[in-house]
Design goal:
heterodimer, A: alpha/beta, six-stranded mixed beta sheet, four-stranded antiparallel beta sheet, B: 2 domains, two-stranded antiparallel ribbon, about 15% strand, binds adenosine-5'-triphosphate, binds magnesium ion
């Protein structure tokens, strides 16, 4: 079962109506991701990368076309099921980190476990383990505002990993980081890929994309190229 | 499990904006306070009225010029104002016609604010000077503690005898000296004290013992302040009570010289009618308090809604983050509903505590035992929680239905 497709998209479209003008953010996308894929999505600004990523992450729904996640049609899922998938199946890492500023690192990382119904002691223990895994043993009780950009992104990654999702999505995870820190973060993704996770990330930088094994280029909502390396 | 987390989150979110939360809470508290305070006070006064209604003896009713309380338009007030006083002549005529159908018939005429003096002691100028006959004590449920009652001869010869209410006796003879055969002065007139009545206690928050009884004939001869008489009638028996009332109306119409077409220009007061007229007051005050409280609570509810809407807007990003990591819609809904629920609940508790205290201060002023209006406390709690939920529902619904992508988009 090495090459099983976990994500299948067929003629997937996302349109935005802006007055009398229709923006084709995604235009008839056909795309598969296999288990343990490690892919980078590239393309100019406005080409539809984030839109695609949000749909894969079940944050957004397509206007038309089909999207199957683990052979299940996402269109047929109700709100609670989508929430469960976002909670258990997918770990999302954002360019702007999206941590809750009032909570310390541990509390931020344990959040998905709350919604998964894990008891408090286990939550805390698992959050600590996740933070240690991304190299933040010393900063666990700090709030996001007290950390550097690279450290915050590690917390965000720890949160994405806490529920052991099989798929990890990252929208420009290094977009706000300097080069050295970016490479540290990519090392973490590399390790996750080696551990068997499916990883899809968006980047603008060629040398970041080189860490992955597959580069998909988008332009005007269409796939321009899809190369495995 | 998840509910516990949601409660913790709701409370800590409220704690972030302490001032704002407290102001909203105070809005609810004011509404609850007004209804609880008024209802507690009313309940307290109600209790006092029940105990005070022995003021009319059993099987007894009164004929007076005007009803105990007057509600209604200026027109009906004017009609009442035009009524003629009940005179002594009318009363005597009435007594002649009614005598055989009643056990006792007593007359009273009162002058409200007088000062009584004995030696170098004097009362406050709030003593009621009552002109009455020998039946006063029977008809009004007083018993003589010391000495004697007013006698028929006192009436016949308009003697300057007086029987003291217990409060007046205590004020003028504080050392326990026997007031009998002492001479007191009321508004300059001298009276020979022949007896003291037993203490009766307060009714409607007022002492019933702060009076001096003198023969009605003496009163009519010597006191310039003339007001309408009231006649107290004791029926022969409980069975004949209603009959006696009907007969008394007939006798009074005759005494007043009313033609068949004219309406009664006097009122019959019974214990029941006193209760009724008090109930009217109670309903009027209660309705007023209810309307004011309702408005206040409505305003508080709008305040809660406003604050929650602001909160949802401010925390759009937080909501987006929570949804993106798997918070189900109902959890978000719960969290925001709980916040508005807490605001109104805490407001309700504060309002109840303050309102019960204020109501009991009134009760205490009236010398009444403390009261806890459980019914109103329960009603307030239910209404408050209801308001918190109802007005919090829209903001919470709005939060729960935020599109995560929209919510997370940098502003
Ligand atoms: N909510 C929206 N309403 C209207 N148009 C939108 C909306 N969201 C995205 N778009 C449009 O869809 C297109 C794709 O946007 P998207 O955010 O996916 O681009 P992107 O490739 O992620 O760009 P960037 O590299 O700048 O992040 C753009 O033209 C954008 O203007
Ligand atoms: Mg983007």
């Amino acid at each position: 079962m090495e090459n099983e497709a976990v994500i299948t998209m067929k003629s997937l479209c996302k349109f935005y109506e802006m007055g009398d003008q229709v923006v084709h953010a995604l235009d008839a996308i056909n795309l598969d991701f296999e288990r343990n894929d490690y892919a980078a999505i590239m393309g100019p600004s406005g080409s539809g990368k984030s839109t695609l990523m949000n749909i894969i992450g079940c944050l957004d729904t397509p206007t038309s076309g089909s999207y199957e996640l683990n052979h299940q049609s996402v269109a047929e899922m109700d709100d609670d099921e989508l929430a469960r998938i976002r909670n258990k199946e997918i770990g999302f890492v954002f360019q702007t980190f999206n941590l809750l500023p009032r909570l310390n690192c541990l509390r931020n990382v344990e959040l998905p476990l709350i919604y998964a119904g894990v008891p408090p002691e286990e939550r805390l223990q698992r959050a600590e383990e996740a933070l240690i895994k991304v190299g933040l043993k010393e900063r666990m009780t700090h709030k996001p505002a007290e950390l550097s950009g690279g450290q915050i992104q590690r917390v965000a990654i720890a949160r994405a990993l806490i529920n052991k999702p099989s798929i990890i999505l990252a929208d420009e995870p290094t977009g706000n980081l300097d080069t050295a820190t970016s490479h540290d973060i990519m090392d973490i993704f590399g390790a996750l890929s080696n551990a068997g996770n499916t990883i899809i990330l968006i980047t603008h930088e060629e040398d970041i994309a080189r860490y992955t094994r597959r580069i998909i280029r988008l332009r005007d909502g269409k796939i321009e190229s899809d190369n495995r390396q | 499990m998840l509910l516990r987390e949601t409660i913790i989150q709701a409370i800590s979110s409220l704690a972030v904006n302490k001032l704002r939360s407290w102001l909203t809470i105070m809005g609810v508290a004011v509404g609850v306070f007004s209804i609880i305070a008024v209802m507690t006070a009313l309940d307290a006064v109600d209790k006092s009225v029940e105990s005070g209604l022995t003021s009319l003896g059993a099987n007894t009713f009164q004929i007076q010029k005007n009803p105990a309380t007057v509600f209604g338009s200026g027109h009906s007030r004017n009609l009442l104002a035009n009524r003629k006083d009940i005179t002594y002549q009318q009363a005597l005529l009435f007594k002649k016609n009614m005598q055989s159908q009643a056990r006792t018939i007593g007359f009273i005429i009162i002058s409200p604010a007088n000062q009584a003096k004995y030696a170098n002691l004097s009362t406050n100028p709030d003593v009621t000077l009552t002109g009455g006959d020998e039946n006063f004590s029977l008809a009004n449920g007083f018993t003589v503690a010391r000495g004697r009652n007013i006698a028929e001869n006192d009436i016949r010869y308009a003697r300057n005898t007086a029987v003291l209410g217990s409060e007046v006796a205590e004020k003028l003879f504080p050392s326990g000296e026997n007031p009998q055969n002492r001479f007191i002065k009321v508004n300059g007139e001298v009276y020979n004290v022949v007896g003291v009545f037993e203490k009766k206690g307060a009714a409607f928050g007022q002492s019933q013992d702060n009076f001096v009884l003198i023969p009605i004939t003496r009163y009519l001869d010597h006191i310039n302040e003339k007001s309408s008489l009231s006649i107290t009638i004791e029926a022969l028996s409980r069975k004949q009570y209603q009959l006696a009332i009907d007969q008394a109306i007939g006798a009074m119409r005759l005494a007043r010289g009313l033609s068949i077409k004219e309406k009664n220009d006097f009122e019959i007061r019974t214990n029941e009618s006193l209760i009724d007229s008090f109930r009217d007051i109670k309903i009027a005050i209660g309705t007023g308090a209810f309307i004011i409280s309702f408005m206040a609570l409505l305003t508080a509810g709008v305040g809660i809604m406003n604050i929650m809407l602001v909160s949802v807007t401010e925390r759009t990003r937080e909501i987006g983050i929570r949804k993106s990591i798997g918070a189900p819609r109902r959890t978000i809904l719960q969290q925001f509903l709980l916040e508005s629920f807490f605001l109104s609940l805490v407001g309700g508790v504060i309002g109840i505590l303050a309102g019960t205290t204020a109501g009991n201060v009134v009760a205490w002023k009236f010398n009444l035992p403390p009261i806890f209006p459980w019914i109103w406390i329960t009603v307030s709690m239910v209404v408050c929680s209801g308001i918190g939920m109802a007005f919090g529902l829209f903001p919470a619904w709005k939060a729960a239905n935020l599109d995560p992508v929209e919510a997370l988009r940098p502003k």
